[in-house]
Each structure stands twice: as structure tokens, then as C-alpha cells.
Amino acid sequence: MKIISQQTIKPSSPTPSDLKTHVLSLLDNYMPHAPVPFIFFYKNYNNGDINILKKSLSRCLTQYYPFAGRILSPFAGHIDCNDEGVEFLEASHDSRLDDYIRKEANHESLRELHPNVSITNMVAVQLNHFTGGGAAVAVSISHKLVDGFTMATFINQWAKVTRGGSSFKPYFLTPPTSYNNVELPKVTISHEAKHVTKSFVFPNSKINVLKEKVMNSMGITLSRVEVLTSLLFKCSVDAATTKSGLFKPSILVHPINMRNKIFKNDPEKAAGNILSSVVVKMDDSRKITLNEVVAKLRRGKMEAREIRDVQEIGEKYASMVPMLIGDPSVQVYWTTSFCWFPLYEVDFGWGRPVQVKYVIPEVNLVLMDTPDKVGIEATIRLPEEEMLILQQDKELLAFIDIKSKV
């Protein structure tokens, strides 16, 4: 890979003086200043579109003005909306697009397609050109500003403007108080063991078999994401127990989008971190059952329905932080699902992407729809020895498209 250009894209219109400071919500403050990184692969990219792409990004930044701002430190309670802009890089690759997608079984290679976001920047973009045509648009936005839904919405709005349309005006929430002086905990990740990342495709036909089995035994209705998340968590805990020979209390953290619950009007326009985390804790050393995990996950989601506003979301998360990062004797599995997000609708005028990838950071499990919507791709990051055990789990293998294992 070779970087061939770098430019700062600034908003097409200056941010009004009364919007120069964007105060972060309590939940925003707890989110790491780390990128939410997506890559969109396109076969029909036209090299002549580069200036249109930059101009449309500039126009979108006028609406998404905090994205062009700066944060003084990861623990600052606000963004300076100073219009300093977004870094836009171009890179060339000596491989063909189809070959690159096929060989990206090594998930670490995806990282080279992504721009490095500086410690103060909020957003960076990298347009990657492949030999023989085709491109990958990689976008990184700080988790301080976005959850997955906001990220997907912004990229779709940018694509819409690139095609000649107009962007709607999102609304950024203003918390009742500033959290500049709150001492927020720093999440530390253990790197004692080598971690590896693998992807597995679960066809809808097999997920439905699993759903029917669990629903019939429990007498409840479940979604694909609920049952698959529960299965993967259970099997991951089983792998860790097999590897060490000892059961370690384990926690599943599963975020849910709260926009439709909290905002009655135009929930899709609400920008920021507007999600609640359901926590499933397994602290009994006996063998975990799938039904038990499903029941606890469902109970947590029902409790989340009682949340009334964004402030309450932040307060709930703050109360969970000591349990999630303060006890080294507990293993935490961070998960997220982008199923049903309009990621494959991102069309810059080159057609829909042939592949969308989330560059998995320290999250253990990411679920996404397959490009043809006939299944779910699960990307999992675990210690290497535990991954080897997981790949041999017969309960898990029964629902995987074996040809898809990468």
C-alpha cells in the first residue's frame, strides 16, 4: 500500500458561533476516543469522482459540524467545533479488488485500508484504489461522537449528497450538565495472549432451525440476533473454560439502539451514542445452557424498555462500569450487531458495495448481514488457543456454513 495524497476537508460553510462547543453526554464521555471503523468495497468506482466525493463530504460536514472539530484529550467533556476539518487520504494497492476481498481471511490486513485518526481528530477517510479498477472507502469516526447507527446514517447521507441529493439536518443532543470535571475510568485491555480474528457465516435457514428449537422449549419469540449472540457467547465461554480447565465468571455486554424508544419524531436523525447496554452475567461454575443465556438476555432487554431518556442511559452505564472493567477475575465479552443497518445501501453513484467490513478492534463479537441478506456473518476475536477450541465446537459448527470459515 502507498499513500498518494492527503488533504484536509473542511465544512463548506462555517459553524455558527453558538454551536462552537458540543458538550458530550454522560454516555459519550464513557465511550473511548477510538475509531468506529467501516470499509465499503466497490467494483465500479470511477477515478474521476474524487473531487465530487470531497465536495459532498465538505457539504455534509456543515450539517455534522462536530465531526470537523477537535477534542483536547480523550477525557475532555466537549468537542471544539472549530471547523479544522477531516483528513482525507488516497492510497494505491498493487492487488486487484476481487483478490483482496478473497485473501482478507487475514483480518489484520484490513487495517492497512484504514486511516490513522490523530489523537485530537474526530474523523478520517481513506480512499483505496486497486489495480484494474475498484476502490474501498474506509471511514473512521471517534466513538465519542457516534454509535453504529449514527455512523451508518452519516455515511449514507454523504453518499446521497455525492449522487446529487441533499442531506437532512441531524440533531445533536445537549446534556443537562457538562461532564468536563468528572474523573472517568480508563478501560485497559489485557494483551497477555495473542488474539486472532475469524469470520463465520450462519445461513438464515440454519439460524431459523436454532430459533425454532429455543423458542419451542422456552415459549417465547426471539430474533436472529438474540439467539445467535447467545450461542456465540455460550460457546466462547465454553472454549475459555476448556482451555484453562477452570470456569471464569463471564459477562456478555450487548448494546441495543434506543432511538425508537426515546424519540417519537424522526428518531433516525438523533446523532450520538444513543444505546443501552444489556449485561448478561454468568457466575455459576456449572455448565452454561443456551436457554439460560437467552433468558437473561431477553430479561435485560425488557428492563431496558423502562429507560426514559439519554441521561438515564448514561447513568445506567456509569453504574455498570465498575463491574465491567474493575474486576480482573471476570471475563467480559463485548458484542455489537449491525444487522438491519443500511450498510449495503451506501451508494456513492457506483452502485451498492460488494462487501462491507467492520475492522474489529477490542470488541469480541460483531454481527452483520451478508451482502445477499441470506445470513449473518459473525466476526469473532479471541485468544488464539480459545479460537482453535471454538472452531471445533460441534454445537456451533451445526449452524455454520462450513465453506465460509475464514
TrEMBL record:
Q: Where is coiled-coil annotated?
A: none
Please state what class of enzyme this protein is: transferase
- PANTHER family given in the database record: F21J9.9 (PTHR31623), VINORINE SYNTHASE (PTHR31623:SF92)
Task: Give a yes or no for keyword Chaperone in this entry.
Answer: no
What is the official name of this protein in its record? Deacetylvindoline O-acetyltransferase
InterPro entries for the chain: CAT-like_dom_sf (IPR023213)
Q: Does the keyword DNA-binding apply?
A: no
The similarity comment for this entry is: Belongs to the plant acyltransferase family.
Q: Which domain of life is it from?
A: Eukaryota
The protein's matches in Pfam families, at most eight in alphabetical order, are given as:
Transferase (PF02458)
Ordered alphabetically, the record's keywords are: Acyltransferase, Transferase
Q: What GO molecular functions are on record for this protein?
A: 17-O-deacetylvindoline O-acetyltransferase activity
Entry EC no(s): 2.3.1.107
